[in-house]
Amino acid sequence: xxxxxxxSFAQNVKDGFSVGVGVSVARNLVDRMFGSSQPTVVPSKQxxxxxxxxxxxxxxxxxxxxxxxxxWTQIKECMK
Length: 80
Prior knowledge:
The chain is mostly helical and about 80 residues long. The protein has helices at about 10-35, 45-60, 70-80.
């Protein structure tokens, strides 16, 4: 895939997901360093499955289906 001058929808989704993950990691790091006044919220199984599906959709847009097979397997396990 060749890079284009204007970002694609998939690239925007990927960038947004990366920023969200980065912010979450940074927040958890700061909370651990300085103590947190709020309890840590563990994502629900349903939200975890939604995150996997979103990652799979981005993967399929950017790569071949065979490269996305591990994500598909995780989605099937998550839905059980």
